[in-house]
Amino acid sequence: AFATTSNGSALSGNGNKDGLEWNMRLDEDGVLHWDNATPAPHKIQLYYNGSAAGGNMNATGTSWDIKSYMDAARKESGKYTLQIDSEKLNSSNSVVYYYTSPLAKLPAPTNLSWGGSDGKTAMWDAVPGAAKYEIYTYGANGRELNHGTPSSVGWYVGVLAKDGMWFTVKAIGDATHRDSYIAESPKYGNSTSNGSALSGNG
Q1: Distance between CA atoms of 26 and 9, rounded to whole angstroms?
Q2: pTM to 2 decimals?
Q3: Contact by Cβ (8 Å): 121, 161
Q4: 1 or 9, which is more confident?
Q5: DSSP state, 41?
Q6: Fewest C-beta in 10 Å: which of 13, 67, 127, 175?
Q7: Comparing 200 with 153, which gets the higher pLDDT?
Q8: Using CA atoms, how far apart are residues 137 and 162, in angstroms rounded to an integer?
Q9: Are 187 and 116 in contact (CB under 8 A)?
Q10: Rounded to 5 degrees, what angle do the CA atoms 98, 101, 107 make?
């Protein structure tokens, strides 16, 4: 039977278009199937919020384990557009795919500030479940200065520290967590305050 999977993933539409009967559907294990409406190979693309979210995968048959792909790629839960292209017939067909991740999402880092012995270290509170952190620093003009992935809290900027600079940081999840949203720091040289989280997956 082809239906909504037990973990909440689902498909809207069947991809039928231009007289071609694709009949796209999910089985209970989250594997995508379609009828052999066009000659193989097929190329699969994914879109999320209007932007490319992975893909360019080649499918030589009439099925693709999309659930395993999404789990391994640690994708966000949400609504995706899944497009299958038939290169030989120059035909593209798409359906809406609703994905539910099995991984809990980490909270965004908090208490972003400037500290250390000389006040030139980007600081934030540790996030339980984070394997590491991804930090970007920016000048007062908004231009990126540098970035890194420290395994613990704190990132020394040293001579780069100038009035008006700021940083963003997100927690990178361990094997059982998705990455957090991005948090933004107060400006260097100004009074510090708690960082605020940004909506989006960065």
Answers
A1: 9
A2: 0.71
A3: no
A4: 9
A5: P
A6: 175
A7: 153
A8: 11
A9: no
A10: 120
Is the pLDDT at 5 greater than 70, yes or no?
no
Contacts of 23 (CB under 8 A, 6+ apart): 14, 15, 16, 34, 35, 37
Q: Residue 83: what pLDDT?
A: 83
Q: What is the largest CA-CA distance in the chain?
A: 70
Between CA 132 and CA 126 the distance in angstroms is: 10
Distance of CA 118 to the CA centre of its chain: 35
Give the residue from 165, 164, 143, 142 showing the smallest Cα distance to 155: 165
Residue whose token pair is 């930090």: 135
Neighbours of 137 (CB within 10 A): 21
d(CA 128, CA 199): 20
Pair 131, 174: CB distance under 8 Å: yes
CA atoms of 12 and 98, how far apart (whole Å) = 8
Q: Distance between alpha carbon 10 and the CA centroid of its chain, in Å?
A: 19
